Amino acid sequence: MIVGIIPARYASTRFPGKPLIDIRGKSMIQRVYERVSASKSLDKVVVATDDERIHAHVAAFGGTAMMTAKHHPSGTDRCWEALQQLGGDYDYVINIQGDEPFIEPTQIDELATVLQDHGVELATQMIPINSHEMLFDKGEVKIVLNDKDEALYFSRNVIPFIKGVEETEWHKHHKYYRHVGMYAYRKDILEQITKLPVSALEKAESLEQLRWLEHGFRIKCVVTEYESHCIDIPEDVAKVLGLMGLK
Q1: How far apart are CA 53 and CA 206, in angstroms?
Q2: How many CA atoms, within 13 angstroms, populate the side-chain half-sphere of residue 123?
């Protein structure tokens, strides 16, 4: 069984109250919840929040929400607390971003497909890079893979270096992927990774998943063709609506 958990904080530094903003007649968190609920792979969907206003709003539109502590440093930690409250015989948790109001349900199903192999500890998604601009964008996290499509490393820099080739041509000589930030955790692994100390590589790149790799956990990477359109700041609302053809 798989539960989809949507972490939703109110006190975002760049966009306070973000989950409750109106997007064409519905709050962002309602749009995310409804899209996630359309996934064929999830047995349950829950919003994990630290704010009574978000909790009450989710309940008002008929969704399921639970209160979690305010101190959690990441969505991973919030997912673990929510799972403990939820109980049940869930094998995996999928952590779904609460700021992607037009997430494709099929994208969740793509990730869930690899969870049929209970040997998978952690899983995430990736999308091919087909341009020099995207490859060298330090805001995009690149993934280095082994021959089993498991992550060897995540970096904001370009890895591998292509010797003897102009940088503008690198993407034509190697299959590069960028990270799409949706995670699946096996229940027992989720408990373990929430107890790990912050690691040196994690500090350097500001990427939580490097902590898991440094401690020997395996992260399966699944290809998707769906672009992620997240809302980080107020100006992103119009931008995302435009990308979706809804402006």
Answers
A1: 30
A2: 25
The number of CA neighbours under 13 Å toward the Cβ of 107 is 24
Work out the pLDDT band at 88, boundaries 50, 70, 90.
confident
Spatial CA neighbour of 152 closest among 144, 142, 160 = 144
Q: Are strands 26-27 and 22-23 parallel, antiparallel or unpaired?
A: antiparallel
Angle between helices 28-37 and 52-60 (to 10 degrees): 50
Summarised one tens digit per residue, pLDDT across range 55-69 is 999 999 999 999 999
Contact status, residue 171 vs residue 159, Cβ threshold 8 Å: no
Question: CA 141 to CA 135: how far, in whole Å?
Answer: 9
Task: Output DSSP code: residue 12.
Answer: -
* Cis amide leading into 101 (omega within 30): no
CA pair distance 7, 51, nearest whole angstrom? 11
The angle formed by the CA atoms of residues 125, 153 and 226, to the nearest 5 degrees, is 20
